[in-house]
Amino acid sequence: MSALREIEFRDALREAMSEEMRRDKRVMLMGEEVAQYNGAYKVSKGMLDEFGPRRIIDTPISESGFAGMAIGAAMMGLKPIVEFMSWSFSLVAADPILNNAPKMLYMSGGQFGCPVVFRGNDGAGGQLGSTHSWCVEGLYSNVPGIKIAIPSNPYEAKGLLKSAIRGDDPVFFLESERMLGSKGHVPEEEYLIPFGQARIAREGTDCTLASWGRPVNFCLEAAEELAKQGISCEVIDLRTVRPLDIGTVVRSVKKTSTCVVVDQSWSFGSPGSELAAQVHRHCFDDLDNYVHRVHSADVPTPYATNLEQEYLPNPRRIVEAVRAATYNL
Amino acid sequence: MTSLSNPAPAAPDSQVHQKVYGDLDHLAPVPGTAEIPVALKKQWLRDMFLIREFEVRCMQAYQEKKIGGFCHVYIGQEAVAVGCTAAVQHRDPIVTAYRDHGHALARGMDPKYCMAEMFGRIGGCAKGKGGSMHMFDRANNMFGGHGIVGAQTPLGAGLAFACKYMDEVIDGGKNSRVALCFLGDGALNQGAFHEAQNLAGLLDLPVIYVCENNGYSMGTAISRGTTMSHSLVTKALGYGIDGYVIDGMDVLEVYVAMKRIADKCRETSRPAFVDIRTYRFKGHSMSDPRKYRTKDEEDVFEADDPIGKLERHLVGSGAMAAEEFKDMQKAIREQVREAVAWSDASPVPPLSELAHDVFIEPWGEYTGSSQPEITGGAPNLPSCRTIDTQEELL
Predict the structure, then answer these.
(1) How high is the ipTM of this complex?
(2) Which of A136, A303, B189, B372 has the largest CB neighbor count within 10 A?
(3) Ordered alpha helix ranges (H), chain A
C-alpha cells in the first residue's frame, strides 16, 4: 500500500515538519504567511490548525528580524524552522544567517549552538525576474559552519528535512518553487536521510553527471536521451553540498573517466566549481577530459520565457556538455 | 530618572508625553534609592570598580600588544551594566554589543577568563576564538558580545521568545523570565533594531532594550546621526513599546528604575525600551583620539563619575569607612593583576582548536578543510549511514 503512495513535494515538506513537531515541542515554525494564510505556497497548510498560533507563527515581512529572532531562540535551546518565502529574500537577512548562525558555536568556544533550519524556495521560479530567482548556494556555500541540503524530489525532501530539524547545527534547506507540485513516492513509514551521503540516481558507465536539487531531474532526462545515443550516464544526486560527498563522485568518476557537474548557481566561485576542482584533484590520472560544467548563464536572470529556459541548466545543455566531455567515445 | 542632557521639549501631544514618561508611576513600588541595603550598594561599588580597574589594565595590555584587534572599553558606563544586571535575576538571559567586558564581569564572569580571551589564550571564555567583542558565558546566561552594530537586537527578541515559549508552550505555565538586550545609541539607526522592536511589540516578548546612550556612535554625535535624539523613547513608542529615560551615571537610579521596569516586563510579557543616559570617558576604541568632542565636555561628565558618586555617597554618609574603600580597591587591583598574570600564563590554543567548534555534529573528523583527503572505501564520512540502516538514527 505505502509503496504506491505518491505525494507532492510540498506535502513531503509538511509531513517532515509536522512529524518532527509532534516528536519535539522545541520545534516551531515561523515565517511570512505560514499560519493563517496556510503558507504562501501551501507548504504549511493545516499546520496552524494542528499546532496552534504559539508554534506556527506568522511574522511580518521582516527577514532580518525574524531570522535573528530564531537564532536567539535557538541559542536558548529551541529548534526553530524559519520559512523564507523565497531564498532571494534572505539577502536582507544576510547578517543574522551568515554572521550569527554559522559562527556562534565557534565564537563562543563551543558554548552556544544554533540549531535553526532556514528553508524556502531557491532558484528561478516561473519568470520571476532577477530579484526573485536567486540560487543562494552559490553565495552561501562559501561560508563554513552551515549545512546546506538541496533535495531533488519529494522522497529526498522529507528524509533530508527531518534530519535537518533533528540535527543540532544550522541548516539551509533549499527547495524549488518549480518542484513543489511535483509528485513522487514517499512511504508512510518514517525514514531519515543523513547529510553528506550522495545517492546514485541512475547507474551508468560512460560519464558521471553530478548535481543536486532540481537539475538532478534534468540530468535524468538528459541521461535518458544520451542512452538513446549510446552514452551511458551515471547520475549522482549529491543531496547536500555542505557536507559534500566527494567520495561517491570520485568512485563514480574512477569508473566512467568523465564528469559533468550540473549546478544551477552561477559558475564563478560556486559549489559546482568547487566540486570540479576536487574531482580534478582526486581523479587527475583517471580523467579522459577536464570536468565540464553546466551552470546558469553568467547574467542576471531574465524574464522572457525563452531566455529564462536558455539561462538555466536544461536537458539540452546537459546533453551537449556530456557529448563534449565524451567526444572520444 | 532624569535626563542628563538634551532635555525633552514639551511634547506636542500631552497623551504621548504622559505615556512615555509617566508610566513608571503606575508600577508596583520597589525600594527607592534610600532604602537599598548598604551591603548591596557596597557590592555595586565593588562591581563597578572591578570593571574600571579591569578596563584600565586592558588598555595597558593593549598598549603592550598583549591584546590585538579591536578593543572597546567600558570606562564611564559601569553603572549601566551593574545596575541593570542587579535589577534582574541571574537566570534572565542578557545579550549585548561589542563593548561587552563590563556586562560579562557584571554578570559574574571571572575576570581571568575575560582577560585571557582578549589575550587569545585557551583559558579565555571562548578559548581565544572570540576576542574582545565576543564574550560568551553560558553559565552566567550571557549570550554574547556581538560585533556587528545592532545584530544583537533580533537575538534579544529571540531570547525573550524562547523564555516565554519554554515556560508557556513547553511547560504549560506562565512566563517567568525577562531578557535584557543592551545596545548603543548608534544601533538605533540599524534596520535590525527596528525589525526587532516591531517583532517584540507584535509578539508580546518579555525583552528590555537597554539603549546605552553615550552620545556618540564612534565619532558621530547622536544629533548628527539620529532623528529625535532628544527623545529616543518616541522610537519605541512607535512600536507600541513603553519607553523610559534613566540617569545612567547613578547606579542606584539605574537599579531602582530597571527593577520596576523588569518586574513589569516579567509580569506582563510586554517589551520595554530604556534610554539610559551615560558617557564613555575613553574613545570609541583604542585608536580614537576623540577630536570630535571637547575636553570641557569630558570634564563635565567625568565629574559625574558613577564610581566617585557612589563612593561619596557611601563614605560621606558614614556607611563605609574610607579605609574600607581603600582596602576594597586594593583587593580588586590585586584580583585584576592576578587575572593578567593568569592570562599571561595560559597557553595559546593548540592548533587542533582551529577546526573544533565549527559543528556540533561534524561529519567524520572535521579538519577545517573543504577538500578532505579520501582514503579507503568510505572516505571521511564515518557518520554517514545508508538509507537501509537509517533505523540507527531513529
Answers:
(1) 0.96
(2) A136
(3) 9-23, 47-51, 63-76, 94, 104-107, 137-140, 154-166, 215-228, 246-256, 271-282, 305-311, 315-325
